[in-house]
């Protein structure tokens, strides 16, 4: 790889990415463009601008954007149409944010004539893979710089030294090692590393930042109604809201009731297992509600096929293949299945649990006429079941006859 | 089908199966053998013997058996190795009991020289399919009698009339229609019909019989440790217990903490959707714990394959194909995956929720050495990630080059 | 089911469907509308009109249509995009024609105010299921009449008697039993029954009607080039042709070179196995060519996913679920994968075999630059492979470490 | 990686691996153990011994083994039970040989106290991945040396120079570049590179080495009968033979009749597409025969599940994951399905094509009694089909009712 001339850096404004910024300038002598996005991580973005200016970035090279609506509308919502859960449990909160960041990095690279992008993910995790696969999928000629895999700043001490030498301001609480590492966006907060590294040991209470402890949640349940259109949540208690606002409100409900905590050991794409604490308050409610509205509006054949495809779909997102032909194929199938997933779900929220307790829809496939224990006025002829069973059993009977013959 | 001469009836001792018993005698003039099983439904079995005697069954034709251990060991446990959930949520509590009942019906038919079996499932549900597919798979020549699909006792009034005419005792509370219908065994209690038929309306509190309301559960969480061997739960808080005892104890924990309630609309195999209230207290804890122990002992490749196979496996059980070559194939794959699923999981039980908070195993694949944020002493070379990503990206880059060429 | 008043019959003009026509008139006293379609079965349609008139059908109740283009464009081509083969081998020639016939039956029923449709498929086969599932999927209230399941004309003698009593003309060669039964359309000819019923015995030579014996095919190979656009064959040796014409020409190539014979035992949806002789001359060439063009234009990830979905897709079509939400989902995924399946394939045809020998495309993903044994000018860095392998191996090494620890 | 002390080299005796041998000695100064295996590639092994001795290898460090029986019995046969074809067509002839070679490399390393293994695969292909994944899966601490990824002998001239400088004898025809590269074993011969690099251009006739041209094959077809036991071929024309002999004989039949040629563009695991010419004479016959015996002995449900799993199974083998938990899981399922795949298949071999024309088995599930067009004496009640269809259609009708309601 020849040396980059101009690089777009995914820049949070924090100490680590500030060090990267400076390192890119000193190591490669290249012009740096910073990109700072609001994905709902709950941090002010303007300080990032000031810090970038202070580190010598030209004003026209500073990009700060609110991507919350795009994030939920074009990434989170399509993923929830699939009820995606990695390894049965993880709602992919970090995974789903990476492709959007990469997409903007590439677009800004094209707009500013940059030939490279850079990110602050380490060489042991999944995020490097997600950033880079997305980047290459969108621009096959882009250079990608992953300082954590390249530099020799391999200890906290060396990083702090570098920062000091380069006049990068260091917040007091950043001098030492953090007791664990955090990633957050509108969908979730994940925590991992250090105090969490022994999977036998309970996560300390202070790790949870996004939800109240279920023990501290209200003693009374709360009921909400979520309206769906074509598989996406569009209203809450009868109020239409946009995608980001929907997730924001659900997050607040989830936070308050202690919903969406997950303590998980998962298999990383790079090959080792890691332990994470995930808080996905709104997403956990959304998953339950989406399953609820599907249950009355979606055909059994379609649902079972979708359930069967889901693990591969979730794996693709986890592994960083959002921009891939096979994810596109699965998305086409999934979206097709959501055409009539429209209606309303009633949920009970209480002490860590969100549970569907009612659902209704103009597109319901539930037929009280057919299912009733009462007289169904001929809607269903019970005698049909005899033939249905007989022919479903035929191959099993032929197998049993063979067994008998062989005895 | 020629008339049956001797029929083995799945007999609960209740009003409905007593009517069936008498109907078989009068309609077909055939000898009846009764089979009453304890699957943990929580009812005394001896009254069934007395009632059968009273209805003219010969003592040697009355079979009463405790199948709880066999049920959990050979049916529930293999199924939980798969983390089976039908339509994403249902733990298959009714489905998994049917094949065992059919197996004993067929064995008793062979032992007593009966040429037919009979069951009390209706023509609208899944259970008739499950009973009959299992029966035919085990004996291709057996006759199956399903009175509900055949007779003209199509209303409560006609049933009561028939009972009265035939001196079948009728408990007071059985004269009218039950407000909903119940099925129970050691794994779960399901309720459906009547007051539950409108899926938009919350299930009344009195429907729940197996678990306390989460609101009434203890205000303090409780922690338990479940030990696993090759995928099956074998000890609780350090005490080894057999399969049935394990589930019994987990049920008690679940009951107390209000765990395992599910309000579901599901797609029946016979084609319509139905709404059920399921309570699976111990099973819900078991699923969470099993996922927990798998998370550190099971390889990623194996787990993802198993997750992908699960929906079909669950569908097979739901649809009644327990005794089928394809379920055997999936079971062989699943069992293979469980060879090292051995270790211990720590769970927190609180107000309706069971959550893994720790797990450890001699067979753990979790390597703190590899995953650590600290210096890993060379266990993992971060530079390897660059090549890993580059080659995973190659096909995506070739796609992007094509797109570029076509623009 | 109440008696039908007006019924649309899938009418071939042959003896069997003429008997059905008359039986519908006499048994139900209902008005009959006949529908005769040209799907490329190679028979004149006008005699069917005359025969229908002779049997008392009103001229306005006689529908005769050439559906060949629609058949190939909307049914055969979408199916070939999937490379669909049932049980690994069968190209679904009969299965794919049924939904189109049902669709027109239902449309004609709606146009003529008929409340029922009727078909001539027997109660043992798959076709009854395909006709009826499609009919019900398109009109939930339609009545379906399947005379072969209802009437008592259960022997050849009774049928001939009925025909004679009702003045239905009987061709000489139809008096006795045919030595086997045939179904044909533009995609294939299938033969089954009677002389073919012992699967151990070779099919007699005279069964094959659509292709020359490979031994009698030309001694010189012939080469053809097939052009594709978005997964569909659109030109042959440089000449653009429409869908039906394409298959017609490929059939002629296949016939001449003895291509597309298949002697198969297959599992029917109704539960038993049957043996069929299939001749699919053009389709066999088309499958090979489609695989060929996909091989250079389709991404590996997309192709592997499609291959994995194919068996279920083929099963859906075989079982009669063309008009189902899950087939729609799979089709959406498959069609998505075909966007760039555009280019040309060169095939060698010789003595029963069609084999791809060359392929090229503007959308090719094959990169000589990357794959070359020669110097690749840096397109691919062989050192990347080391990291790629190392990280793919990591989980396997962790497994091996566990094994070692346990020894 | 610290320097290796003793390395086991997969050694063919040819020029390239002789250069590697010498390079290992000079580059690493390490002791070399050679391993030369007969996998049916059709070359004498003793010359490899002499050459190794000549290059200074101690006699006790030279391992020469005939692995043909183990290769077919433990690798080829299990794979054929799955009907494995990569990307729909490739019979995995190279892929399946690699894990066995690696297994022996690792075993010899353990026996000789070697700390490393080495192979002669390049950095662009799949074989490096297969060798190394298998090695790491069997010994997590082994060092793997892949000289082609490391050295600077990047052109034919440099290689020849190195050979000359090191007194490695060079056969005359090895001085120049070969027009294509070949790999062979008992299952297949593959050819790729150079004259084959343009996938639009037909492979020259001289590339095919393992089969006669179909045009030159006998003008008369030949019939053979292959006997199977539990999914493996065990006899030919009534003669029992061992696994290697079976494949050897089938190869001779295939060679003679020009069977098993494949011209393929495939997606490599390392990310690019490559074009190969494969000749798999015996394997092509075996696949057809295995499908044939399965067709009458295997249940539909089992077969469809197996077909659905096959693409992933084939991909695992292609990608080098033979020794992985997920391959073990799939193998367990596949082997389970083969318990009754026992019987005989009759095939017609003619001019490039092997076609099943008859099959029989004591374990046949084909029931002439059920399928017959003649009177079946009540084995099958055609009226059952009505109920079967009605209930299969119910969900489709409920969908259609919804559509109607919405219009």
From TrEMBL, chains A, B, C, D:
It holds the Pfam family Arginosuc_synth. Pathway: Amino-acid biosynthesis; L-arginine biosynthesis; L-arginine from L-ornithine and carbamoyl phosphate: step 2/3. L-citrulline binds at residues 90, 95, 126, 130, 181, 190, 266, 278. L-aspartate binds at residues 122, 126-127. The gene is argG. Keywords: Amino-acid biosynthesis, Arginine biosynthesis, ATP-binding, Cytoplasm, Ligase, Nucleotide-binding. The keyword Amino-acid biosynthesis applies. Homotetramer. This is Argininosuccinate synthase. It comes from Actibacterium pelagium.
